[in-house]
Structure formats: structure tokens, C-alpha cells
Amino acid sequence: MICSFFVHFQASGVTVSDEVIKVFNEMKVRKSSTSDEVKRRKKAVLFCLSDDKKKIIVEAGKEILVGDVGESVDDPYASFVKLLPLNDCRYGLYDATYETKESKKEDLVFIFWAPEGAPLKSKMIYASSKDAIKKKFTG
């Protein structure tokens, strides 16, 4: 019984939607853009499983745009954390900016969110599908 559970757990068969890959590629590219393009770029975004649990998709309405920072969003990280559900799992991308002694840095951070209150089945499928999304995020 444990062996069959383990094999099923390892291979979830979940795929990643093209929209998720597109969002990742748009967030990682930092080429010079017009100020309007920069404002529309995502600062943070959440991904979830589709209703049939077969595909990782962009979660509608769960994003923060660069243009929102300083306008409707004072603290982008705190606002991002508030987007995360208390009782379910999610994947997220956060465009972190920070300063070192030498310079200002930007890194795209992948987040796997699995809160204690999430159902065990959700934790299992998100955990076993994490590699599928990470493999699509190249660079």
C-alpha cells in the first residue's frame, strides 16, 4: 500500500499552462522598456491548480503590478503575503529588490506555499507537481 502511494505521489502528471511560462518569461526579462511597460510588469503573481487538478495556471486577480507599488500598494511583499490563502497551497513568483553595500539587486523568487491548514491531498499534489513548474522556469 505504501509503495503504490509513493509511486503515485512522485508522478502527479500535472502540466504547466503556456500562460504560466509566458508570465515567468515576462518577469525575468529586464530589458529597457517604456515607463508604461514597466508599470504593467508583474511584481508578484500566484499560480494554482486548475479545477480538474491537471494543470498549473495563473490565478486570476492574484497579482501585483510594478505600477501599483507606491500607488495602491505601499509594501509589495506584505501585499503579496496577503494574497496567499490560509487554507490551501500555491506557487508564486516575487520580483524581489534589495540593496547590498555594492549595488541594488533584483532577483525573481519562486515560492511554494503549503500552510499548515491546507488539506493533505492539496499539499501532496502541490508538492509532487513543484518540479514540473520549476523545470519550466529556466534561467
Concise overview:
This protein has 139 residues and is of the alpha+beta class.
Q: SSE order, as H and E?
A: HEHHEEHEEH
Helix content: 25-40%
Tell me, rounded to a whole number, the average pLDDT: 86
Structural class: alpha+beta
State which percent range the strand residues make up: 25-35%
Rg (CA only) = 17 Å
Number of helices: 5
* Main beta-sheet annotation: 5 strands, mixed
Family: Belongs to the actin-binding proteins ADF family.
Protein name: COF2 protein
Keywords: Actin-binding
Domain ADF-H: 13-139
Topology:
Elements: H1 2-10, E1 15-16, H2 18-28, H3 35-40, E2 42-49, E3 55-65, H4 76-83, E4 90-99, E5 104-113, H5 120-136
Parallel strand pairs: 1-3
Antiparallel strand pairs: 2-3, 2-4, 4-5
Descriptive overview:
With 139 residues, the chain is α+β, with helices and mostly antiparallel strands. 37% of the residues lie in helices and 29% in strands. The radius of gyration is 17 Å and the shape is globular. The chain starts with a helix and ends with a helix.
Provide tags for this entry.
ADF-H, 5 strands, COF2 protein, 29% strand, 5-stranded mixed beta sheet, disordered N terminus, alpha+beta, ADF-H/Gelsolin-like_dom_sf, 5 helices, 139 residues, ADF/Cofilin
